[in-house]
Design brief:
This protein is an all-alpha fold and 195 residues long. It folds into two domains: 95 residues, RNA polymerase sigma factor, region 2, helix turn helix motif (Rna Polymerase Sigma Factor, Chain: A, Orthogonal Bundle), CATH 1.10.1740; 64 residues, Arc Repressor Mutant, subunit A (Orthogonal Bundle). Helix 1 packs across helix 2, helix 4 crosses helix 7 and helix 6 packs across helix 7. The longest helix has 58 residues.
Length: 195
């Protein structure tokens, strides 16, 4: 006959309260499977049910002195398990909400960065469009086609020095245009947000 049935729950509890590990193992063996099934029905997760059962029995062992006042151990165990399970589920729900919030914030930052990048490239395109035709050609051949000064000069029938000068002027002009218009745009956005 198994040791589980030799002692009543009350006898085992009294032994556990004074630190008897053997009695504690007997209580664990007697109830852990029932408790696991009960918690699984609430959580629908084998792993979470196992963790909760382990946590509950650990909590019982850690506060074993309080077991002397327990009249119905099975009811005590199942109420404790239900409370711990609900607390775990609340914690998981809070963590998922936080994670969702972080994901939303991250996505918003990405969208904001993408919008900023689009605005910058639109301003860059506008600035290039405003360049005189020859400077525009030099700039595009240099930056987009990655040609060297000599190659650009050959294509456009101008000297390498002229290409260099046009590129310097174009770059300065584009930088000034983008900088000025970005400042205006930022000011406008700030004003719109304050309205």
């Amino acid at each position: 006959m198994s040791d589980l049935f030799l002692y009543s729950d009350q006898d085992l509890l009294l032994k556990v309260t004074v630190g008897n590990e053997h009695a504690f193992r007997q209580l664990f063996s007697k109830y852990h499977q029932q408790l696991g099934v009960y918690v699984y029905r609430i959580t629908d997760s084998v792993d979470l049910a196992e963790d909760i059962v382990q946590d509950v029995f650990l909590k019982i062992w850690m506060s074993r002195e309080a077991l002397a006042g327990v009249d119905n151990f099975k009811a005590y165990l199942f109420v404790m398990s239900k409370n711990h399970t609900l607390n775990c589920l609340r914690k998981i729900a809070r963590e998922q909400l936080k994670k969702k919030g972080w994901e939303n914030n991250f996505n918003n930052v990405l969208k904001s960065r993408e919008e900023e990048t689009n605005i910058y490239y639109n301003l860059l395109d506008e600035a290039i469009d405003k360049l005189p035709p020859q400077q525009q050609k030099v700039y595009l051949l240099s930056r987009h086609e990655r040609l060297k000064y000599a190659e650009i000069g050959q294509r456009l029938n101008i000297s390498g020095e002229t290409v260099k000068k046009y590129l310097q002027i174009a770059t300065t002009s584009i930088t000034a245009y983008v900088h000025t218009n970005l400042e205006k745009l930022v000011f406008l956005l700030i004003m719109l947000k304050n309205i």
